[in-house]
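Quick one: co-fold with zinc ion.
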Amino acid sequence: MILNSQIWHEVITAAKASTANAPEWLRAVERGAAEIERVRYWSFADGVLTIISTTSGRTYRIDEHHTCAACENGHKACKHRASRRLVQRYYERLAQTPAPAPAPAPKSSDWREKAILVKRDGNALIVDGWAV
Ligand SMILES: [Zn+2]
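Sure, here it is.
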């Protein structure tokens, strides 16, 4: 599941731009991106993309030495390698993106809003609407 769709789309745009002159790879990038968005399961750890293919239902573990029928032992583009690169770049960009700023610390005047409302009404002391 892609949690940061803005970064994901930036990664895809950059990948398409860099493969614009390599139609085989451009197609692999498009198919790889669609695969990541559609599959029910994928994970990425230690440079290995694990994915359950939408077309075959097979589990692929795609590392840098990946080969398959489509890529003819690494001589051609394939959506698996494109998927892996996209996810790798996604995590690289995610790591470079600063985490959202923490919520500002409460101002010292905020104690007034949190304090229990206490007011005197005649001789009775009213605390949160109750006479005590
Ligand atoms: Zn492949």
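If it helps, The CA atoms of residues 36 and 75 lie 22 Å apart.
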